[in-house]
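LAB NOTEBOOK - FOLDING QUEUE
OPERATOR: T.R.
BATCH SIZE: 2
PURPOSE: Compare the predicted structure-token outputs for two unrelated chains run back to back under identical settings.
PRIORITY: normal
REVIEWER: second-year student, initials M.K.

ITEM 1
FIELD SEQUENCE / FIELD STRUCTURE:
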Amino acid sequence: TLKPKKDPFMPRLFSEEELLNLFIFMSIAICGPFMQGLLYIQLLMWSFVSTCEWLEYILEHNPDFPILCALTPVIDSVKESWISIIKVKNHIEVGSMLISCVGWMGGLNAPLLAVLFSQFVRIKAVSSHYTRNSFTQLNKVFEDTLPENFYLAFINPIANFVISMDNSAKKAQEKLDDGE
């Protein structure tokens, strides 16, 4: 048969990452061309990785599948570097959130996008290690480049808030694991 018995795409379709990507689809309507470009890049990276994963699964079960055999080098390349691709995607998400927070003043997006995108990234920061890593790296860049007083007054409270969200999520998971 040409179709694998178990499709890895369907269980992932309703996972958290995929549902959060629906937000990006809807956000495209309330942002300007620059922000749309950033959102499209995020979606393209996500779809590229997901599609390569699905194609790899098909090739494992049907190695002689027409045309897909020619894509094996691309699929193997993505398989080797998918963590780097996901990290870049999350860096773009965090950067897009920061741009949207100040971009509405310059007409890059609607003010509503800044609020919604901040909530989107906040949810991702709680659930995704890669997003937390992006925040940590961005915080390090700010700490190293901004004047100390500015960093302590504006950036440090936001960084502490993100860290507290992460700690709250860990405590809640520990309670669930302990059966409380």
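ITEM 2
FIELD SEQUENCE / FIELD STRUCTURE:
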Amino acid sequence: RIAKAARLLEIREKEGVPLSNELDSAKSLIRQIRHAISCWDLGRMEESLAAVEALYARYPKNYNVNMLYIRLLLDQKAYGKAEPIIDAAMAYYPKEGAFLKHHGDLVYLRDKRKAYEIYLKAMVATANGCTHLEIKERALEDKDELIAEARADNDLQQAELLVKLVGDDVDFFALRHEI
């Protein structure tokens, strides 16, 4: 989203179309977000966090600011600080599966089974390929544990859930067939 908006502004400026105050403000926001991302990429976490916190204080309902802030907090394992931000983002964007996925990441720390149920809801709620991939990777990391639990409980519902999360995994399909 940021790249598309930045490109639109670049084209307008190249064409000599004056930017309204609103678009000029958007341009400033884009620069600030890009600065925070650059700091994060360069390992300057404190600077990145300070920049994102300032952005969040100013734009608490901005989708991109929320997404960046949440990812940064989760990356730093600041789960207690991330939880109210995720809750607020889900309230602002109730149909956005990416925020629901982040909620699942917090639940995962306490209850993996419930987290996977949330992950399925997140996948249904978004077409975001990165969100789907992160969920799939998490399930594959836990694959042996998930299969063992489903087998021990003879839990067809859990096997079905795993197939829905990772539709191309042969072992999850075999588990469903076995149960």
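REVIEWER COMMENT (ITEM 2): Residues 88 and 102 are 12 Å apart (CA to CA).
FOLLOW-UP: none requested
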